[in-house]
């Protein structure tokens, strides 16, 4: 796509003689070939010949740079696409069936996006539930482990002859496990 910085250019026919329009500073040309307009009978190839009338200075905007800019400015994209459609329509290069097919394809894309969004929402809900279940199970395992460690520590104290929990009335035998609380007290 080209933007005229200064100078004049003529839009000419294939013979190079018939002048259809004159472009001056601020004019744009070559946009139709990079806009990918649905229904374009030329297959997004150029639709006109441009010739400089004297010295001209132009800005060149690549397809990638244009699309990067248009994603930031959706209104400008809409305006440029409409202008491209009008140019193609004026020259009889716009296929109405192609436009309808593109619109139907766009609608099915919207439906797919909606389905994907719904599936993502469902997965997020399931993931949140699973994380909550995991957290709860992890907490229960930690509590059980803590109780087992305490019991193991207590049992090892009872089997240790130097343990203060052993009384002289009970022998330090692994087969006898006295209660930590005296009976009848």
UniProtKB/TrEMBL annotation:
SUPFAM superfamilies: cAMP-binding domain-like, Spectrin repeat. It is a multi-pass membrane protein. One of its GO terms (molecular function) is intracellularly cAMP-activated cation channel activity. Residues 159-185 are annotated as: Disordered. This is Cyclic nucleotide-binding domain-containing protein. GO terms for cellular component: intracellular cyclic nucleotide activated cation channel complex; plasma membrane. Keywords: Coiled coil, Ion channel, Ion transport, Ligand-gated ion channel, Membrane, Transmembrane, Transmembrane helix, Transport. Residues 1-82 form the Cyclic nucleotide-binding domain. Residues 99-151 form a coiled coil. InterPro entries: CLZ_dom (IPR032406), CNG_cation_channel (IPR050866), cNMP-bd_CS (IPR018488), cNMP-bd_dom (IPR000595), cNMP-bd_dom_sf (IPR018490), RmlC-like_jellyroll (IPR014710). PANTHER family: CYCLIC NUCLEOTIDE-GATED CATION CHANNEL SUBUNIT A (PTHR45638:SF11). The keyword Cell cycle does not apply. It is found in: Membrane.
């Amino acid at each position: 796509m080209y933007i005229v910085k200064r100078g004049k250019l003529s839009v000419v026919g294939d013979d190079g003689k018939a002048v259809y329009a004159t472009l001056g500073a601020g004019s744009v040309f070559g946009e139709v070939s990079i806009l990918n307009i649905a229904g374009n009978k030329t297959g997004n190839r150029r639709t006109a010949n441009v010739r400089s009338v004297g010295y001209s200075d132009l800005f060149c905007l690549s397809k990638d740079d244009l699309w990067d800019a248009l994603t930031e400015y959706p209104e400008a994209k809409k305006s440029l696409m409409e202008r491209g459609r009008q140019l193609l329509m004026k020259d009889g290069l716009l296929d109405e069936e192609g436009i309808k097919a593109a619109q139907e394809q766009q609608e099915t894309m919207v439906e797919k996006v909606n389905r994907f969004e719904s599936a993502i929402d469902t997965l997020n809900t399931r993931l949140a539930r699973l994380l909550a279940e995991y957290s709860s199970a992890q907490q229960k395992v930690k509590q059980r482990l803590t109780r087992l460690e305490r019991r193991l520590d207590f049992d090892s104290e009872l089997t240790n002859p130097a343990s203060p929990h052993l009384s002289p009335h009970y022998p330090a035998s692994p087969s006898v496990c006295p209660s930590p609380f005296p009976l009848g007290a």
